[in-house]
Specification:
It contains 24 helices and 34 strands. With 853 residues, it is an alpha/beta fold. The longest helix is centred in the last third of the chain and has 20 residues, at 604-623.
């Protein structure tokens, strides 16, 4: 016997393999390979199942596979958690036999406090959609949000004919959810009963009755030719449940004799020693407190705990009080239970919230939502005094019949502090016996492990710490093969035909990089990047800066080329410490300095990027923050700054300011009145009288700064002419458009052409429409001729033409294009009526193509 266990001493090699069909071991004896000779590798015959594992998960080095096993290669039973492992909530798991899978549960997870604006976190629906051809059924264990909340997003990702299985009460909750989202298809919904087997995908499934904090909760037994899997769902062992439906120990004992290849069990309360108390004990505690109260009773609990509602109803009947439900989720669960025949209360007997004042306080019990201090929950609103349903007073008794979920401690405590300040009595705490968990404690977990005695054990449902501790508990009960995996890791399992085999039946089959999906209300849905979750947090932490820049390119005036940039910069900040305005001044200086370093032909996008980075670094150096900076650069469509801005730049502050510009300054300071006397003249200009230079500088500090920005680079006269757009007359608010001359060019409006050699004039120069520009305008107008026949929306079409010209390097405003077109039409009619030669006007043929139709 000793020789047979030591390969180094045995002259022969004993080869054993398990027959795939019969439960016996066949052995063969072969001669050993001589030393020094290479042994020929005999290919292994594929039997559709791997007996034992290719690699143990207990090895120090774990294999990393790029792809999952597919087809009949590898272990037959496969588990791929999509959510719920390493976290509380979002329970969702794929369980399969080779390449055929079922999806067990599809729950949501609620966001942390730093995930701003997010309402729900959902499993990776993109991966579910990618594997939809392999998923043959969805099976739901019970109706809590962390098990059914993601169905409105998961179901559209599946094949349209994939069935959904659930118990009757759970199915009522699912129906309501699907109807609200417009995806209710009755033919896909299948109701199962406890201990009634049904076929779903590759498995024959038998639901197992377990006790929990919601009716119709079940575990699942999945059977196939290659083994049996037990998925417990959420559970506890309640020896005396209020509905009389006890935890089915007998079934587990029978299942143990049959043999369980893999057991997956809830790990939520593995760190809590002992056993949970029964819901009946909570009912007694509620009855005791309600009977001893003299004033109004207000209870808060988890809305899904129908059994707890039954306890409150029983206490109300004993004390002669009426029940009031305040909170939509309470009515949702109660209505579903009523339709399924499991409601302890007839919804029609409840007192309406608007009729509370008709009853004496001692005759009422108000059942309300808000145990976790949700922002819009009734109890939380009442603590602020802003609830429309009821007002708290010092005679009220608050029975806190719930557990504070980890992560909510701070906001729950703040709510309770506000209630205490009002003077209401709060009854809560473990010693009061007002709450019991729906998840088994360590003693119950150990008992079930000892009953089932599975070959393999995989802890599920809990933080990574809980999973590791549950694994150790499994080993302490004698289970040899245990492991812990995370979301996205596929685990293969093979049934061990001989319990004395020392190899591990677990196999690592690869890892999928899953991504969390987020819901931001009724419509917004996507990844954290698509919903800008990190950006929201960054703005909340470091603030935001919005800088708008109206850029004026260098131009030629009176034969001299300006070598400076002029621009208007306005900076707005939110959630940022400004140091009494000092930081804002610093940001303005930094923005102007940055623009001065840009080339005169710098693209707007480059200006935006550069200014954003400089301002971000400036704030970081000033206060250690890295704010989000949004820079918007726009060309000045008029080509030059208005006369009032030029006068401001030159230091003359007593001149009239245009009304629109001044309004912008005033609107920027709603609390600051103008220290000057203003009067509006008939010309539409708002004049300032006795305006001091300092007062105007103060008003301009935040609304925007107009400073000349020097550029070290030079620009050629040709490039300057190309950038020179049209300007306004100094006393006109509307653009004066040029007239089209007979040669097709445009005059400057006073009958003379503006050239670089012209004597100095008070009016800035206009550049002419070049012939090729005029032809482009005619062509673009012709392309849109049919759309111009519609009376409304014509100005938008001129804006489209202006934008198209800008893409070709031609800077013209919509008004300029419209004015030139009117002049062209007038010339065309004159030529047509006078029967002049087409050659006398170079644009006649182009215009005739457009207007002759």
């Amino acid at each position: 016997m000793a020789a047979s266990t030591s390969l180094s001493l045995c002259p022969y090699i004993l080869c054993c393999k398990t027959s795939p069909r019969n439960r016996y071991i066949s052995c063969s004896v072969g001669s050993p390979t001589p030393i020094g000779t290479r042994r020929t590798k005999v290919p292994r015959k594929s039997s559709g199942r791997l007996d034992g594992a290719r690699k143990s998960m207990e090895d120090s080095v774990q294999r990393k596979m790029e792809q999952f096993y597919e087809g009949t290669a590898g272990p037959p039973l496969r588990v791929l958690p999509i959510g719920g492992l390493g976290e509380i909530g979002m329970n969702c798991m794929l369980v399969g036999h080779y390449d055929r899978y079922i999806l067990i549960d599809a729950g949501v997870m609620f966001p942390d406090n730093d995930e701003l604006g997010v309402q729900k976190i959902i499993p990776d629906t993109t991966f579910i959609k990618k594997w939809s051809h392999k998923i043959e059924a969805v099976v739901i264990t019970h109706g809590h949000e962390d098990h059914i909340g993601a169905l409105p997003w998961v179901i559209p990702a599946l094949d349209p004919h994939t069935p959904i299985y659930a118990s009757s009460f759970t199915m009522e909750l699912i129906k309501k959810r699907l109807k609200e989202n417009g995806i209710f298809v009755p033919s896909r919904l299948k109701v199962f009963k406890i201990r009634r087997r049904f076929k779903a995908g590759p498995f024959e499934i038998e639901p197992l009755r377990v006790t929990h904090s919601i009716p119709d909760c079940c575990g699942l037994v999945l059977r196939c030719a290659d083994g049996t899997i037990l998925h417990t769902g959420d559970w506890k062992i309640d020896e005396s449940p209020l509905d009389g439906k006890t935890f089915d120990r007998q079934f587990l004992e029978e299942l143990s004799k049959e043999g369980v290849t893999l057991m997956m069990s809830d790990s939520t309360n593995v760190l809590s020693p002992g056993r949970t108390i029964s819901e009946s004990a909570v009912a007694d505690a509620l009855s005791r407190h309600i009977s001893g109260a003299k004033g109004r009773i207000i209870t808060t609990q988890f809305a899904s705990n129908i059994h707890r509602l039954g306890s409150i109803k029983a206490a109300a009947d004993v004390t002669g009080r009426k029940l009031v439900f305040i909170g939509m989720s309470l009515r949702t669960y109660l209505d579903a239970a009523w339709k399924d025949g499991k409601a302890p209360i007839d919804p029609s007997t409840l007192v309406k919230a608007e009729d509370i004042d008709a009853y004496a306080p001692k005759d009422l019990i108000i059942v309300t939502t808000g145990s976790q201090a949700e922002p819009r929950a009734a109890l939380n609103l009442a603590s602020y005094g802003s609830s429309h349903s009821f007002k708290l007073n010092k005679e009220d008794v608050i029975l806190y019949s719930a557990k504070v979920i980890p992560g909510n401690e701070s906001r729950v405590m703040k709510m309770l502090n506000r209630i205490s300040e009002i003077g209401s009595t709060i009854v809560m705490g473990k010693n009061e016996g007002l709450h019991t968990s729906g998840h088994g404690y360590r003693g119950e977990l150990e008992e079930v492990l000892q009953i089932v005695k599975p070959q393999h054990f995989l802890p599920i449902h809990g933080e990574l710490l809980f999973l590791k501790e549950h694994e150790l508990l499994g080993k302490s009960t004698g289970i040899r093969h245990t492991t812990v995996i995370k979301n996205g890791e596929m685990l293969g399992v093979s049934h061990l035909r001989n319990r004395r085999v020392l190899s591990n039946g677990f196999s690592s089959l690869g890892k999928e990089n899953l991504q969390l999906m987020y819901s931001d209300g009724d419509k917004a849905f996507g990844t954290s990047t698509e919903l800008c979750v990190d950006e929201r947090l960054r703005i909340a932490s470091d603030g935001i800066i919005v800088v708008s820049m109206e850029i004026l390119r260098p131009q030629k005036i009176d034969g001299m080329v300006e070598n400076t940039l002029k621009g208007k910069i306005k900076i707005t900040t939110r959630c940022l410490w400004l140091d009494k305005g000092k930081l804002l001044d610093t940001l303005h200086k930094a923005a102007h300095a940055t623009l001065s370093s840009c080339p005169v032909n710098c693209p707007l996008a480059h200006m935006e990027r550069t200014v954003s980075e400089v301002l971000r670094k400036t704030v970081r150096k000033y206060s250690g923050k890295r704010p989000e900076v949004i820079a918007i650069a726009l060309e000045n469509p008029a080509g030059v700054l208005s006369d009032e801005l030029n006068e401001k730049l030159s230091g003359n502050y007593n001149a009239g300011f245009g009304l629109p510009t001044l309004r912008k300054v005033v609107d920027g300071h709603p609390r600051r009145g103008l220290p000057n006397k203003m009067k509006a003249e008939d010309d539409g200009i708002l004049h300032l009288e006795n305006a001091s230079e300092q007062s105007l500088l103060d008003d301009d500090a935040e609304a925007g700064r107009f400073l000349p920005v020097e550029d070290t680079s030079t620009s050629s006269p040709d490039y300057t002419d190309k950038l020179t757009p049209n300007t306004d007359d100094s006393n006109e608010l509307e653009e004066h458009e040029p007239e089209v001359k007979s040669d097709g060019t445009a005059s400057n409006g006073d009958g003379s052409e503006m050239t670089g050699s012209q004597p100095k004039s008070s009016k800035p120069k206009r550049n002419k429409w070049k012939p090729e520009e005029v032809k482009k305008l005619i062509k673009m107008r012709g392309d849109l001729h049919s759309r111009f026949q519609v009376v409304k929306g014509r100005m938008a079409l001129w804006e489209e033409i202006s934008t198209s010209l800008l893409e070709d390097g031609i800077t013209r405003s919509p008004a300029q294009c419209k004015s030139l077109w009117a002049s062209l039409v007038q010339k065309y009619e004159e030529c047509k009526n006078e029967k002049r030669s087409h050659k006398s006007w170079p644009y006649f043929e182009d215009m005739n193509k457009v207007l002759s139709d």
